Amino acid sequence: MDYNYLYMTSQSKEEFSIRLKEMFSYTRFFHSQLGRLSVAAFNKGVLSTYHSEFEESLISNVIEFKPIRLLLSSSLSELINNKKIRFVDDLNDMPKTQHIRMLTDAGFMSSLSFPIVDNDKVVGVVFFNAKQKSYFSSEKIKSDFIFLASLVSSMFVQVIYERKSYQQLLDVALKIGHHRDPETSQHLKRMGMYSELLARLLAEDIPEITTEFIHRIKFYAPFHDIGKYRIPDAVLFSNAVFSDKERSIMNMHPIYGEEIIDNVIAISKIKNGQSEDIMFLKNIIRSHHEAFDGSGYPDGLVGQAIPLESRIVTVADVFDALLSKRAYKDSWSLTEVKKFFIRNSKKLFDPVCVEKLLCNIDKFVEIRNDFDDSREMLTSNRSF
Ligand SMILES: [Fe+2]
Ligand SMILES: [Fe+2]
User: What region holds the HD-GYP domain (predicted)?
Assistant: First the structure.
């Protein structure tokens, strides 16, 4: 293997997933046994896949991306605590967790796991899998993969750093905004997760949805209503039916939200306020109340003219709002919610998003149950 070529590829200006894809196929040219290369982020005890490459589409994108909470006793926890590379010569000897079963079902026999360390802390793991037992234990093969893993690891640390500076600032803005937002913080968490899930499901048919798209929507969906913090209390916390005037005040929140982001950018050190990330975030904030038939606000955009990220967030937001109990309304049953989406497909919602939601409704309900509101005090809330 030409290490220099791999190094140059890792340093190119392409997006992370494009560089990884190229490095994976280059490595497979020399090591055809390599069937999977996966990079997972590790944060607060939870491992979540960032990007995976497979020899063929062996494993469903959606199963693979379920975050895993690591058990203290697992061998991966040991890898994270000791920051040591782990070799598994036969995956059949491992405890049969859902994740291991997914790998063995796909025919994988061995693995190499490499901790990604930044500032003495494990921030992720690089995984390699092969269909041959003990594949990574051979000395010659081992060195190629350790070299590749260190390149991938520094690429990943670089990705984290690039986003860290302004994401921290945005997080502060979200916390300040949320302080007087009647929404529960669980709603914000669920918004990231539903939107991510919907994007992953859509990715099977829509090439525009890249790994970067998925990570962006997961991180930025919770910001959709940040503009609400400029809405006066009398309107924001009202449980009565809105007058026309109150409605028009409330409908300003997407525009206020965009202005808040502009202010955050102005006080931060972000050089490029028009970067793809910022545009993506602003699209979510400005257009999450647009309707597919053009009857939404603030711009009355129609169909595909509404950014895809906004169409996804709209479906996630309404799905969550309908299932939630609020001071002015009861929660709806799942049957009623499904009927509402069927009735409003092509009207309020992108029909493709509705179809994915309805065909995979159990997965969305699972998120809902895992992050329910029960421990938070509920006040009024109007999501749409
Ligand atoms: Fe909103
Ligand atoms: Fe919302």
Answer: 162-373
pLDDT tens per residue, range 176-234: 766 666 677 788 889 999 999 999 999 888 988 888 899 899 999 999 999 998 888 88
pLDDT 10s digits, 148-176: 999 999 999 988 887 776 777 777 777 77
- Domains held by the chain: number: 2
**How much of the chain is in helix, strand and coil states, percent to nearest 5?**
55, 10, 30
CA of 318 to the centre of ligand 2 (A): 7
Cβ count within 10 A of residue 295:
11
306-to-297, 298, 299, 343, 363 alpha-carbon distances in Å: 11, 11, 9, 20, 26
Query: Nearest ligand to the C-alpha of residue 257?
Result: 1
DSSP E strand boundaries for the chain = 34-43, 46-54, 68-69, 86-88, 110-118, 121-130
Question: How far, in Å, from the CA of 54 to the mean position of ligand 2?
Answer: 35
- Ligand 1 is an ion; its neighbours by CB within 5 Å are 225
CA 179 to ligand 2 centroid distance, Å? 14
Average pLDDT score, the chain: 87
CATH number of domain containing 346: 1.10.3210.10
Q: How far is the CA of 289 from the centre of ligand 2 (A)?
A: 10
